[in-house]
Amino acid sequence: MNTPHHPQPEAAAPHIVVNADCSLFELGQVLVTRFALDKLGNVGVAELLSCHIDGEWGDLCQEDIDANWHALKHGLRLLSRYDTADGDFYVITEWDRSYTTVLHVSEY
């Protein structure tokens, strides 16, 4: 029970480190759904984000890959898809690079 005298501690946000030294764009604030974090863990999320900012768009058709390169040049939304042993996930960076979301494809 949450009372004024004994508040429940809030869960700490997961700490995910991504090497962005040579990234193609800024991720902005990173949001990860609970399901994606539970399935991938911090390391798995970091791996997907690292691929995404390096332009390794994952498991997309050539048309979607070309669309990402166009989006990168013209400031549009970027979408990667990674089919992993733990499920299939999207990484989406908004057009203004204000935030990036990692989510399971079923959550889209």
Describe the structure in your own words.
With 108 residues, the chain is α+β, with helices and mostly antiparallel strands. It has one domain. It has two helices and four strands, in the order βααβββ. Strand 3 and strand 4 form a beta hairpin.
Q: What level of helicity do the residues show?
A: 25-40%
End-to-end distance, in Å? 34 Å
Stretches where pLDDT falls below 50 for ≥5 residues? 6-10
Order of helices and strands: EHHEEE
Short structural description:
The protein contains 2 helices and 4 strands. By secondary structure, the chain is an alpha+beta fold. The protein starts with 28 loop residues before the first strand and ends with a strand.
Write the layout of secondary structure elements.
Elements: E1 29-32, H1 34-53, H2 62-74, E2 78-84, E3 87-93, E4 99-104
Parallel strand pairs: 1-4
Antiparallel strand pairs: 2-3, 3-4
Provide key terms for this protein.
108 residues, alpha+beta, 4-stranded mixed sheet, 2 helices, 22% strand, globular
